[in-house]
Specification:
Strand order of the largest sheet: 1-2
Number of helices: 13
Oligomer: single chain
Radius of gyration: 43 Å
Largest sheet: 2 strands, antiparallel
Order of helices and strands: EEHHHHHHHHHHHHH
Distance between the termini: 51 Å
Number of domains: 3
Length: about 400
């Protein structure tokens, strides 16, 4: 007579079993209690049930159709499959990231090479990222779709940033290094062009050349008169620079050094006046007071004119005092103050240029987006999500 395991359905002969009290299934090693006096009848054996979920098993079943547990080993196959899918998620993210980076760089290079931005390539990039994720993992879930969508956003952003950087550099909008290099050349007295500008400014201040304030004010306006003023200003500045260079080259070396020393002293006096002047020299009207009068609605125009005239006189007086103080200052103290002024001016310039570059780049970046770009971006993100998250792409898949 044969025995049948109530768990896995395997059969074996009575002769193969050494003990009648506790037959052990040779396949799944389950123990079936059998009475000593009554031989087991296969018809009386209860139907097999899954040891994991307790659902009935078909005769000879190897896997539970309800929970996926293997009848012999007790291992849940569905759990293993799910674990395998989860394990591939990290790999899918890596492959998707590579696809996003490559797609963004290629898109930017094509735009730079052709000098034309093709918006439909953004859609292709989204499909590339979604397909890369889909082919790497069998998991189809919301998190996979969102991951592909975010990777597509990254790739699109990289493409736009590279295009922005190219446009900025193409227009000469470079970081602070160039300005700092110019300052270094100016400090070493090696930049003749900048030196002539300083000499021209000094000649204007001393009355050797007419002031350009009126012409500069006209150039800041609009219309034909402003355009004519801009052209006139360029020609005048060129003439001033030529006259300044002629004067500078006509000087002896010692006279050149003295002129540059006077220019540097004048610059330091202006810096000293802005930083310490009002606190040290106590003017009759301060910059803060004048600003308050300008903003006030109760101050008459005549009172404001008198205040501005007084302010100009006080500024000239304080500058003369600052020049005298600097001229009488010991060389070591003067050098330390010169170093402080240079450091402050460099930092001020760096801050200004950093802000200018940031605003310029932001304007270029936002200017690269058009209505069609937004449409293709939306299509790219939808495509990336659908390719990564959908179970089937078509009925025939």
């Amino acid at each position: 007579m044969n025995l049948r395991c109530p768990y896995c359905g395997a059969e074996w002969s009575r002769e193969q079993e050494e003990s009648a009290r506790a037959p052990v299934c040779p396949q799944c090693r389950a123990v079936a209690t059998v009475s000593e006096d009554v031989a087991p009848d296969v018809d009386d054996v209860p139907s097999a049930r899954c040891r994991h979920c307790g659902e009935p098993l078909a005769p000879g079943a190897v896997l539970c159709t309800s929970c996926g547990t293997h009848c012999r080993t007790g291992v849940n196959v569905k759990a293993l499959q799910a674990a395998g899918k989860v394990g591939r998620f990290g790999v899918a993210l890596t492959v998707g990231l590579i696809a996003a980076l490559a797609g963004g760089v290629l898109w930017a290079l094509l735009a730079i090479w052709t000098e034309t931005e093709y918006g439909w390539i953004a859609w292709v990039l989204g499909g590339l990222v979604g397909m890369a994720v889909r082919l790497t993992t069998r998991e189809r879930s919301v998190r996979v779709g969102i991951a592909a969508l975010l990777l597509a956003v990254l790739g699109l952003g990289i493409g736009k940033v590279l295009m922005t950087e190219y446009i900025c550099r193409h227009h000469g909008i470079l970081p602070v290094e160039r300005a700092e290099a110019a300052l270094a050349l100016l400090e070493q007295r090696q930049n003749d062009d900048e030196t002539t500008l300083l000499v021209a400014d000094r000649m204007i201040a001393q009355g050797e050349l007419p002031s350009l304030e009126e012409l500069e004010a006209l150039a800041d306006g609009d219309g034909p008169e402003a355009e004519a003023a801009v052209d006139s200003l360029k020609k005048t500045m060129q003439e001033y620079r030529q006259r300044a260079m002629e004067k500078y080259q006509a000087l002896a070396p010692a006279e050149r050094e003295a002129l540059l020393r006077d220019i540097q002293l004048d610059m330091m006096a202006q810096w000293y006046l802005e930083k310490y002047g009002e606190a040290e020299f106590q003017p009759k009207i301060t910059t803060e007071r004048l600003s308050a009068m300008v903003e006030s609605e109760t101050v008459s125009e005549s009172e404001l004119d008198k205040a501005m005239a007084l302010y100009d006189r006080e500024q000239k007086r304080m500058k003369e005092l600052a020049l005298k103080k600097l001229a009488a200052m010991p060389e070591v103290e003067f050098a330390a103050m010169e170093t402080e002024m240079t450091a402050e001016n460099t930092q001020m310039l760096r801050t200004f240029l950093d802000e200018f570059h940031r605003v310029f780049r932001m304007n270029v970046f936002t200017g690269l987006f058009s209505g069609m770009d937004i449409l293709f971006f939306a299509l790219a993100l939808i495509t990336a999500y659908q390719l990564a998250a959908r179970e089937q792409l078509s009925e025939s898949e």
